[in-house]
Amino acid sequence: MSARTARAGRALRGAFLALGMVLAFPVSGSAMPSGEAGKTVRKARNAVRELRVETAARLLEKLGDEHANDPDVRYVQALLRFHEAEYDAALEAIHASLDAAPARGKDDGRTRLQKLIEATAETTDSFVESRSSDGRFVVRHEPGRDEILVPYALEAMKGADEALAEDLGTRVPGPIILEVYPTAESLAEVSTLSADAIRRTGTIALCKWDRLMITSPRALVRGYPWMDTIAHEYVHLVLTRASHDHAPVWFQEGVAKFLEHRWRGWPPEAHIDPAADALLRKAAREDDLIPFRKLHPSIAKLPSQRDAALAFAQVATFFDGYHEAHGGAALREAIARVAQGTDARKALAEAAGSSWNNLEASWRARLRRRPAPQSDAPRLLQMRFSQKSDKTDEREEVEAEKARRYVRLGDLLWDRDHAAAAKVEYGKAHEIDRDDPVVSSRLARAALAAGDPARAIEAIEEVIARHPDHAPARSLMAAARLRRGQTENAREAAREAIWLNPFDPKPHCVLATAAADEETRDRERNACTRLGGSPRQP
Amino acid sequence: MGVVTALAVWLALRPVRAVRGTRAANLVQRRDAHLASETRSALELASQQTAAPALVHAHAVQVRDAWRGIRPGDVMPWRRALHPTVWGGLAAAAFTAGVIFSADTATSGAWALLHPGERDERGVRLAAVVSRTSARLSYPAYMQRPSVTVDETAGIDAPRGTTIQYTVHPRIDASAARMRVAGRRVRLTPHEDHAFQGQFVAREGGPIRIRLKSAEGVWLTDSQHRSLHVVPDQAPRVSLSSPEHDRTIELEEGVRVAYDARDDVGLRKVRLVVRLPGDRKVRRTLARFDRGTLQRETNGDSKVVAGELGARPGDRLELWVGAEDGDVVSGPNQGKSEVRTLTVASEATRRLETLGDMEAALDTGLAALADRLEGAIPKSADGARARLDRVRKSTLRFTDSLRELASGLDEGRPGGPRDPSLYREMAQRLRRAATREANAYRGHVPSHARRVQLNTKLVTQLEDSTLALADLLGRARIEDAAELTKKLERLRREMHSLIQELKRTDSPKAKQRLEAALARAQSRMRELMERIGRMGRDVPSGFVNAEALAKRQSSEDALGQMQKALERGNLDEAERQLMDFEHRIGAIADALGKGQKQFNKARFGARQKAMAEAMDSLAGLEAEQRQLAQRSAAIRRRAAQRALKSSEALDGGQRDKLAERARQARKALEKLPRSALGPREQEAYERARQRLVDSRDALRAGDVGEARRMARQAHEELDRLARDLELSALMFPGQEGRMSKAAEAARRATDRSRKLRTELDRALPDVKEFVEPSERARMRKDAERQRKAAKRAKELAEQLAESADGKPLAPDAAKQVGKARKDMDKARKSLQEHSPLEAARRQQEAARRLTELREKMEKGQRNQSPSGGGGNRRRSGGYGGRTMQQRVEIPGTDDHQGPDEMRRRLLDAMREDPPAQYRDSVQRYYEELLK
Lengths: 538, 931
Hints:
The complex is a heterodimer.
Chain A: H1 3-24, H2 35-49, H3 53-66, H4 71-83, H5 87-100, H6 109-123, E1 128-131, E2 137-141, H7 150-168, E3 176-181, H8 184-191, H9 195-201, E4 205-208, E5 211-215, H10 226-242, H11 249-259, H12 274-285, H13 292-295, H14 305-339, H15 344-352, H16 356-369, H17 401-415, H18 419-432, H19 437-449, H20 453-466, H21 471-483, H22 487-500, H23 505-514, H24 518-530
Parallel strand pairs in A: 2-3, 3-5
Antiparallel strand pairs in A: 1-2, 4-5
Chain B: H1 2-17, H2 33-48, H3 53-68, H4 72-75, H5 84-102, H6 104-114, E1 125-127, E2 130-138, E3 148-150, E4 155-159, E5 163-170, E6 174-181, E7 184-187, E8 189-190, E9 196-201, E10 206-214, E11 219-222, E12 226-231, E13 237-242, E14 247-249, E15 254-276, E16 280-288, E17 295-305, E18 316-325, E19 334-336, E20 340-344, H7 347-373, H8 381-410, H9 420-441, H10 448-505, H11 508-538, H12 546-549, H13 551-568, H14 571-648, H15 652-670, H16 679-700, H17 704-731, H18 738-763, H19 773-801, E21 803-804, E22 807-808, H20 811-832, H21 836-864, H22 882-885, H23 899-911, H24 916-930
Parallel strand pairs in B: 1-11, 4-12, 14-20
Antiparallel strand pairs in B: 2-3, 2-5, 5-9, 6-7, 6-10, 8-9, 10-11, 10-12, 13-15, 15-16, 15-17, 15-18, 18-19, 18-20, 21-22
Helix pairs in contact in B: 2-3, 5-6, 7-8, 7-10, 8-9, 9-10, 10-11, 10-14, 11-13, 13-14, 14-19, 14-21, 15-16, 15-18, 16-17, 17-18, 19-20, 20-21, 23-24
């Protein structure tokens, strides 16, 4: 589990608790419809809370006409519409509820809900909608550049949908809505998180209110694994529905991390980034793993980022091991038990026919059996949100001062079209710090421009292994591979690059040449040109 | 008819189809069937593009070569065209055409045959009824052109306003005629020779339709299409030959404006127009012509001085020359030259120039670095030499650029660092390294390893220098933008005050000034936006608050809103917008200030730290040196007072005796025959004589010191004079040995002056001898302190000279400290020799150098920190106020008109109790006299 997700989980806790308050307590304080009608409203409210949205819709359909002016009915209707991403209707319903029974103050849950709906409606007002051919998947985004994301986003959603139906035994009824927010600020507007918290914790995506919400990769300087993130959030969506939202956070994050690459067609496996992996190994070696009981009820309660990162790595590897030992059926059964209200640890143990202590012990043993890594742990790269200025300087991220000096020289030369000379200066920086992705990427860029793709590949190969989410390195790798005539590898690298930063024209330009079919080539050619690239010179 | 013609053309071109495309090969079929086949293949391959291009090309070349041997006549079927029937047909066609065009009726009939029943737009039948027409054109008077008659066929071109007398000669027997020109009816009346005539003025162009009434009373429209084309009078064309392009000018510079104006008819007026900020236009008539003397072309020049037009530094003036012609028909046409923008030089433009030069120098430096980095050093000697030539040139180009930057700073150009020695030091280092490298290649080319070593050294220096220059450029850019922001703030205050004035007085003048100020502010705002935009490349975004800088756009908007408010006369709204502008400008200024601070910390942090340390060392050293000087001065003062007492002990008899010596020396000099002296010698004679008189007077006044100094000077003058005369006497003895006699007399006077000097020296004791033992012991201790101070000075000089972040800290300062150290060494020696005069003088000199240096460096730092960063440093070592920091200059002999009087006054002051601030100076002066 990545540190990103760990931070996200912690930051989101407050927001979710707030929403829980909204959903859990009596709606308005006014009297509910009496008798059966009142029971139905409660059932509908609980159904919404457990993401049984369709059930809630059925229940409310009956009540709508008879209690059209009841504030509680209208409130639950507003909740439902909000979950259905029908913001105008939700707004109308919450206004009707408040008209029927004025709010008791600012602590009235309806007021908070009203603000949330209003903010969401306003933020998404200009959004345009794209649907998959079967209408099952819907992508909403700002008109303009984010349009480029649509085919890829649909690909990730579709892939995740198919894989998760098989893995978790649950298929979410459509349409499944993904909203792409252009900036961290706009995500803050609709999520009750502050923009500062989003930037500080690196929270970039949410799955809540029965929809997926991500920040556009263009809000970050180097993008981020946005396709995996969509799939990750998709796992949360399916799991929330399958468990009736009874799965604890560690369970949620563990399963989501374990299955987030399934959309690619990869087998279920925990992909831990090298930095977190190093933490896990060290903790296992020194018997410093965090006991699972401490992870309950929330990883976000852990005292430090390090502990959180370690916890995520732990839960992801736990599910990896659990799946390997007991199979997907056990996992599905455990989820079903959780949905029925069984404690997650107990459910897992029962489904495996074992005890929780045994499960934990076998996982620890498995961790200790893992082979030692071949090199030191790489440093953790911070997510960088785009600034409003025209240029964002990555150079300051280079840690070694001497290396930074050579990078600066290289940049000065590069800016003046002395690519070969820049290559030499970047090379000096690379000698000082071979692990720095910024240095390696710039060296590769200059080497490519100087007609030396072999040097470019050499510079970034190791960096990609250690920093798999560094988009510029992926993009350059694609271009270098293509330049070397390695079309297959170029195609693969370009796709990986787009999955990180689809707004970089280079990988699109590579695919405009290297894609296997004409349709993809056409699409990528258009994207390449649209983003200001040249298909002839990727 | 068209169909028939097309059919004929199709039939005529039919044979051509036989040789179209690949069938062209058929042309050669009869002559060479094989070549025809090859040609066909080549054409097919070329059109299909399926085969390899190289193969197709090779085949085409081969076929082309084969065709070269064939004459066109051998393959073209010309013979068919020579058949008798063809000739017969052509002859018949020619005869028929002759008949048709020779007789009007035949022509008319032929036309009617070819166009049966054709009618015009009004339903009148068309016929070839007009044989010819003519037009007499009388041009408008202002054109001053003679009338002309033209036989037109299809159209008339006439300038607008031309009177046209139009004559129609019918082909038929016509009883009446009508004409329409551009839809307007023109009356035609019978004229001589069966013709008809009418008159109209050319105002609008259009078709000319002529109708004739036949003898049978049938109206017929002439089938010939005619038209009138009215040529409008062209606007004058004006061009500027000076200024040739937009440029920056000085406020009081006379800018030559040279123009050339032309018109198709005649120019009436030429004017120079200058647009100033606030859309104020200044117009000046350059040429004017009366109606009767219009000129088709004219040229001339004028001069524009921006300052005289009320422009201010930084203003942009737009300038052009406009011309007006004398068209009285449609009204005068106006032409305008290209517009030149003149920017009045200001600190901002000068800074921009400096920035441009710095950027160019950086480009040159990076090009030099790139030259050395790109490509390995060749193994071969020739290759290595060739490379050296190339890289050396580019390296030296960079050093030249650095020197030019330093020269610019010497000339006081603003922008960039304040210390030109930085650039000079960089240039010197690079040049030295480049010279070392070049020297190594003299004779034998050095080994490859040595070549690499030399190159690496230069690469490192180029890296250091370019990085340093890039840092300086980045800082200069932020400072430049900050200065512009300050300028905007000043303009804002001016506008605020003008708005208040306008509210009070509602005077047009205040409004005009406000508009001008607003225009200036808008212009400066645009400049600021441009400068901030340019900052991006040299100043990473991390150093400037992008959000605050983004407000520059909204600041410009606020000014635009203010302008609109002023146009509406809404002063309250204008004031509100001005306040908004103030907030935004404030935000930009803050962002730039912070950016500047951060940038300096990041890029110059090490340097600033080193400089701060050096400044601390300097201040400490200065304090120590000043203290040492004070201690020596105290000893000197006491010893001098003792010596003075001793000299005052000289009794009147002794002084009289010495005065007599002086008088004797003067008498001896006066015996010299002055007629033997040239002008230069005469002057020397006078000077020596006067010094002897001075010496005697000083002795009589009891001033032994002054007497001694005068005696010394007299002796030096006399000795020189004697030597010159002796030399002249050797070569030119003169009449009756006059020159020799003069030389002898001068020598005698010299001997007497020497005696006077010696006796005076004996009479005045050496100050050194009046230093007491306890003071000597103190001086020995001070000598050790002085040694340590000199050592610290040496270290400080090294510290200032050595490279911090690749660039020397303050090379000029290092030199200055070096000079102070030399004084310290000499002072130490004098202390060891118990010579308080020399010791104190050297120590004071060292302290003065250090004080001056510190003040200069502090000033430089203050200048480099406009935002105040670093300005809070400790100033001095605690020597009291500014008055005591200032050096009190003792006037030299050449400094004043009356040096003697000045000295006298000082001497008087010495005897009295001088003001405290000058006590030391007076003492020093006295001691100077004592020496």
